[in-house]
């Protein structure tokens, strides 16, 4: 039986940091998401970063490795390589994963897997807590249409993921390997087929999530999460039955049904999650990569620790927390579930002792 939890927040497992935050203390972020590069080998139709045209740049090797070491010294718990580009485009991605893990940070990778050679897999997998691979369709033609790439990239990605799963088994590694699909208007019919494929090639899990729509991007002509859920409910329910003793098929039902609605008035989760773009700049959150108003600092000029504790960072976080109209933000943003919990802690309901 899987112990994975992908449909909410695990913030309640870090109560010491939460208590310090409630007291107004500066805390190290629990989680940092890093975009090693803004460059990408695909141009997916649903990409939230299209408005930047993947031109924010690439973090220099020495800056990236120093960031990994700084996070370890600060007490950052986890780091995900993802962001506005394909992490494996960065020539030193796997080296940085190793350095991060050696510095005491739980490391993870989100990738389209096309560039995941066996050599890179062997370098990265022993140092990863998990690796999640984005595959948006169950067959080459539709895959190419959504990823806006060559049809042969589909089989290349699947073969590379299968190789990663084989290396995990052969070496007895603890890394969790999964395939993630975003539900879109044109791919729902293939959800069960892709879940079966993930199981057959040795993945630990398949997960279906909702689409993150950012108004700054004009290329998506889709539908709401709840409408798509209702349209493809039969396929989603079929996929949910495919779990075995060694494989879990996860449909994020709760998040779909929530439909991106926010019941909090302010963004309070910024102290817990940090996001860094391919230009080496630290921002409040990835939807605002490239927007100077949301920049906390520049790793090309200052250390991550100095940026995080700087007056500028405190000022920008406070501005977002008090002035940002969250109703205009991208639905299902990375801070959403954390914001829900933080809002409840800051604005408790009546009769809290009746648990």
TrEMBL record:
Keywords: Iron, Iron-sulfur, Metal-binding, S-adenosyl-L-methionine. Residues 24-245 form the Radical SAM core domain. One of its GO terms (molecular function) is metal ion binding. InterPro entries: 4Fe4S-binding_SPASM_dom, Aldolase_TIM, Radical_SAM_PqqE_MftC-like, rSAM, rSAM_sf. Its cofactor is [4Fe-4S] cluster. Pfam families: Radical_SAM (PF04055), SPASM (PF13186). The keyword Chloroplast does not apply. The keyword Metal-binding applies. This is Radical SAM protein. It comes from Magnetospirillum aberrantis SpK.
